[in-house]
């Protein structure tokens, strides 16, 4: 009897975690390798659109997430100086009814923890930094920084923007610095003086913005993330500390509600916004990419992780349809069914136009990766 196809996933980020959870649930023989020794609840929020909640439903964590996160009634876009409403996109009950699931904002660490809880611990290997991958034709050899060596039949690169798998397929090339940074701060809502806030609001000007939302269902923690032009990024750093002074300078003259947020958020970090042009291939032989390893983008649509999670679901769907031993057919089907949508989201994110003015987001939020007709 032929043994099962051994699947190795590199990286337990949001894409890799979704892939491990869904593939294990589908009865595939999967192992997840992560370089970190554990994950922490770092200071960041994340939007989880209905398109992602449908994947969380399959992973069995939809209800827990619905309890964990905030349920914004609307996405507001406002003028950064005057607070004038530029768009008001219905979410809340409207999202459940029209897009098939909730629209949440949540702490990224809480989302990640729930996703990891949906994976049996015995299929996860921590402190495993992949250093070298060799597709021998009949199997793939994985060499890790701790000196260990593993073998798999197919390997999925969920290892983020500086992916070792992408490098193996296409050669070493740093991502592109967009010239923009994102400042991030999470803090207790009670620290904000004199202003109540929309549940989810993006404040805009011509060249910068600030996105603000709650990250808990109790609305006791709030988060902002910016997009601001900045000096060229030192690629040896993944983030650097920032400060309230830097924020005051970047948003001088903005509406008092924005100033109140800046005064309340005393710990600020600064992250580069990096991207790559669409890749000429997503797989070769026994190796395949997903998420930021494949299509990193500016976070301006709040759909970067969403695309990683959708990739994971589509790859699972394709492997189940063809059988994991027919991985070449599965990889081709996966790319054919993902590249157009991921490319569209990458482009809209790059242009930073999403929901700035009134528009219909149904093509993005209404998508169901498990039901979409396959090309
Ligand atoms: P990652 O999350 O980067 O995970 C990669 C994993 O691989 C990590 O755990 C890493 O430790 C591991 N790894 C890397 N190399 C190796 C190796 N050699 N061996 C073993 N393990 C390895 N997206 C949204 O959907 N909504 C948002 O609101 C949002 N906000 C954002 C705000 C900012 C400021 C930024 C910068 C991004 C934001 N994004 C958002 C984008 C989102 O964070 C990414 O698109 C998403 O994290 C990609 O997931 P991933 O699993 O592909 O990669």
Automatic annotation (TrEMBL):
One of its GO terms (molecular function) is FAD binding. Pfam families: FAD_binding_3. InterPro entries: FAD-bd, FAD-dep_Monooxygenase_BioMet, FAD/NAD-bd_sf. It is an enzyme of class 1 (oxidoreductase). Its cofactor is FAD. Keywords: Aromatic hydrocarbons catabolism, FAD, Flavoprotein, Monooxygenase, NAD, Oxidoreductase, Signal. Its EC number is 1.14.13.114. It catalyses: 6-hydroxynicotinate + NADH + O2 + 2 H(+) = 2,5-dihydroxypyridine + CO2 + NAD(+) + H2O. Residues 4-345 form the FAD-binding domain. The keyword Protease does not apply. It comes from the Bacteria. GO terms for biological process: nicotinate catabolic process. Monomer. Belongs to the 6-hydroxynicotinate 3-monooxygenase family. This is 6-hydroxynicotinate 3-monooxygenase.
